[in-house]
Specification:
By secondary structure, the chain is α/β, with parallel strands linked by helices. It contains ten helices and 13 strands. The protein folds into two domains: about 200 residues, NAD(P)-binding Rossmann-like Domain (Rossmann fold, 3-Layer(aba) Sandwich), CATH 3.40.50; about 100 residues, Alpha-Beta Complex (UDP-galactose 4-epimerase, domain 1). Helix 4 runs parallel beside helix 5, helix 6 crosses helix 10 and helix 8 packs across helix 10. The protein starts with a strand and ends with a helix. Bound molecules: nicotinamide-adenine-dinucleotide.
């Protein structure tokens, strides 16, 4: 039986990944500061602990796992990443986890390790035009990420690549572009745009008003969780190291995203644009490289994922009442 370690298994992507790996027949150890919030973990073993702690990290890597998935990070949506209030924690916590994970994975001889980087590594100067952002993998340098979160991700990409060059650590690196879906953070300040917009629309009676940060003309693409995991597994099964974008090329403005969710909800609401953290003006995945290297790329229309997402958020909002 193949063995996998999933770090960040209590989080959004990690908890879904554990389910996928179990479905594929892996023996899975999940590790996180917390248990998954929205469903019971299906991991064979789930250890609650802090991967910043070297001894704990070493203990979690007590065998040469066939596959390690390093998803643990101090992260959140724009309200967490772009205010600047969490920069020191984001950099220190995530970098410490990655320093430990790269070192002990190499030491114990794990067969393959996946690292989740982010579209936030791309230079701000290529993302000023909302209609024409540039996010091809080779455009990462000269580096100018728009957040400390992006700088830490870029540092850690380089860290894992150094371990690959100097110690043959067999790495795979993906740059995720706004992954969304059920069972992710949807309230409390760390939620990302699709969850925040679905929640606001679910909570507001027909004819009411929701707030959107900025002028809503900033553009993004959003990838549903199951296509994200499909990309991760295909990358792990390939010989391609990356970094490679794992994202959708269906770019929409935040206003269009809100309109789409209103349409799904069957509500007509007005949008009030308010001051708020925004990030870059435009961002979209560029899927040339993934299509070339893996012979696959995400294709599912955004609306289909949003329907599933809205349904789940509506249940959460109703349960809270
Ligand atoms: P998440 O916040 O839901 O999951 C991250 C998990 O890491 C959390 O459960 C958290 O408790 C855990 N963690 C944090 N510090 C830890 C520590 N010291 N020890 C052990 N566990 C710790 O986020 P997610 O959306 O599931 O993202 C997973 C990964 O993908 C992260 O590395 C994130 O940066 C990256 N990523 C996500 C997106 C996205 O759109 N969701 C986009 C780009 C990159």
């Amino acid at each position: 039986m193949k063995t996998a370690l999933v770090c960040g298994a209590g989080g959004f992507i990690g908890s879904h990944l554990v389910k996928k790996l179990k479905g594929e027949g892996f023996w899975v150890r999940g590790v996180d500061l917390k248990l998954p919030e929205y469903s019971v973990t299906v991991a064979d073993e789930f250890v609650v602990g802090d991967l910043r702690d070297q001894l704990f990290c070493q203990k979690m890597l007590d065998r040469s796992f066939d596959e390690v998935y390093q998803l643990a990070a101090d992260m959140g949506g724009a309200g967490y990443i772009f205010t600047g209030n969490h920069d020191a924690d984001v950099m220190h916590n995530s970098a410490t986890i990655n320093l430990n994970m790269a070192y002990y994975s190499q030491k114990v001889g794990v067969k393959k390790i996946f690292y989740s980087s982010s579209a936030c590594i791309y230079p701000a100067y290529n993302q000023l035009d909302p209609d024409n952002p540039k996010c091809s993998e080779d455009s990462a340098y000269p580096a100018e990420p728009d957040s400390e979160y992006g700088w830490e991700k870029l540092f850690s990409e380089r860290l894992y690549l150094s371990f690959y060059r100097n110690y043959n650590l067999n790495v795979r690196i993906a740059r995720f572009h706004n992954i969304f879906g059920p069972e992710g953070t949807w309230q409390g300040g760390k939620e990302k745009a699709p969850a925040a917009i679905c929640r606001k629309i679910a909570e507001t009676p027909d004819g009411g008003e929701i707030e959107v940060w900025g002028d809503g003309k900033q553009t993004r693409s959003f990838l549903f969780i199951d296509e994200c995991l499909e990309g991760v597994r295909r990358l792990m099964d390939s010989d391609f190291i990356g970094p490679v974008n794992v994202g959708s090329e269906e770019m929409v403005s935040i206003n269009q995203l809100a309109e789409m969710v209103m349409n799904i909800a069957g509500k007509k609401l007005s949008i009030k644009h308010v001051e708020g953290p925004n990030g870059v003006r435009g961002r979209n995945s560029d899927n040339h490289l993934i299509a070339k290297k893996l012979g696959w790329q995400p294709t599912r229309p955004l609306r289909i994922g949003l329907e599933l997402m809205y349904k789940w958020i509506l249940e959460q909002v109703s349960d809270k009442k």
